[in-house]
Amino acid sequence: MSLVPPAGSDRLAEGCGDMAEIIELIQKSHEAKKHSYSPYSKFRVGAALLTSDNRVFTGCNVENACYNLGVCAERNAMAKAVSEGYKDFKAIAIASDMKDEFISPCGGCRQFMREFGVKWDVYLTKLDNTYQKMTVEELLPVSFGPANLS
Ligand SMILES: O=c1ccn([C@H]2C[C@H](O)[C@@H](CO)O2)c(=O)[nH]1
Ligand SMILES: [Zn+2]
């Protein structure tokens, strides 16, 4: 587990580009969470996806009166990126309002992530900005992917 300095504190990030990048990504996932449309679960989630050319695509969960049509924050962020021509992903940060637990992506989102490779990073965060970093491979071992169809 690692501790991310609070917003506005750039000191720890100085001289450490990667760290600054991750802090920013986590902050963006919290921003995205503000747009969460979750009147049924009342569980807000935001995601910020970093592409290999350093673009960020954000997403939030979007629920529906027909419950099963709801879409997760992570999948919305990935679909936004892919639909704009970006599918090389470096990392995704996920934020919820949980204080005591790291938000963990659902099985469907893990499979959706896996479509775009297993060697990229997923930052599971808590409200206080502490995070757990896992690769897609760690989240979904022994997975089924595009190569299995060729
Ligand atoms: O990682 C997660 C976990 C849950 N949700 C959403 C789905 C649903 O809208 C709500 C409750 O499960 O949270 C996400 O967007 N991402
Ligand atoms: Zn999901």
UniProtKB/TrEMBL annotation:
Gene3D superfamilies assigned to the protein according to its UniProt record, in alphabetical order: Cytidine Deaminase, domain 2 (3.40.140.10)
Keywords from the named record: Hydrolase, Metal-binding, Zinc
Binding site for Zn(2+): 72, 106, 109
Residues annotated for substrate binding in this entry: 61-67
GO MF annotations in UniProt: cytidine deaminase activity; identical protein binding; zinc ion binding
Catalytic-site annotation from UniProt: 74 (proton donor)
Substrates-to-products reaction catalysed: 2'-deoxycytidine + H2O + H(+) = 2'-deoxyuridine + NH4(+); cytidine + H2O + H(+) = uridine + NH4(+)
Recorded GO CC terms: cytosol
Cofactor(s) this protein requires: Zn(2+)
A biological process from GO: nucleobase-containing small molecule metabolic process
Enzyme Commission number(s) of this protein: 3.5.4.5
InterPro entries tied to this protein: APOBEC/CMP_deaminase_Zn-bd, CMP_dCMP_dom, Cyt/Deoxycyt_deaminase, Cyt_deam_tetra, Cytidine_deaminase-like
Pfam families in UniProt: dCMP_cyt_deam_1
Domain CMP/dCMP-type deaminase residue range list: 20-147
PROSITE patterns, per the entry: CYT_DCMP_DEAMINASES_1, CYT_DCMP_DEAMINASES_2
Family indicated by similarity: Belongs to the cytidine and deoxycytidylate deaminase family.
UniProt function note: This enzyme scavenges exogenous and endogenous cytidine and 2'-deoxycytidine for UMP synthesis.
Stated name of the protein: Cytidine deaminase
